[in-house]
Amino acid sequence: MPDVPRELARSVGEPLLFQWMVPLLKGHIADGSTLALGPLGQAAWFGLLVTALNLMPVGQLDGGHVVYAVLRERAVIVSRIAWWSCVALIALIGPTWILWAVLLRVIGMRHPPTIDDGAPLGRARTVVAVIALVVFALSFLPNPFLVTWSDLFTSR
Fold it and tell me: In Å, how far are 8, 60, 96 from 145, measured between CA atoms?
């Protein structure tokens, strides 16, 4: 693959799944080297980002549905923790999370009650909740676009 001029290149974070799969698919990448993603790799990366964002345990997102199924009324506490975590990521990592923190606030922290809230959790819902947690952990990346506050205030 030809070299890409640095001003045209974009650096992105690596979810755990990428970190595990790259050596299996590409072999060892030498220290100091950068892997250029083709269109399929970019689509996979973006799919993992969207999956992680959708599995955040807030309101009407899929993660919110899972947490509500498991914790019922206490799910709102988890939603608030997730929102405050986004706020913390803004302060600790960078501005990438501003939009997502605003969207989570607009979506709302509460999940509406279901028709049969009294049904026992059961093994199937427990398995789905564990799978969702694992998928979230494998696809989440705290700084997807590797943008920091200092990047905004320095000229290149």
Answer: 14, 25, 7
First to last CA, the chain: 26
For residue 152, how many C-alpha atoms fall within 13 Å in the half-sphere facing its CB? Answer: 8
User: How do residues 68-93 score in pLDDT, each as one tens digit?
Assistant: 999 988 999 999 999 999 999 998 88
**pTM metric for this prediction:** 0.81
Please name the helix (run of DSSP H) or strand (run of DSSP E) that holds residue 133, with its range, or none. helix 122-139
Report residue 3 as tokens: 């070299």
Q: How far apart are alpha carbons 41 and 25 in whole angstroms?
A: 11
Answer whether 121's CB lies under 8 Å from 69's CB: yes
State both tokens at 142. Answer: 């705290």
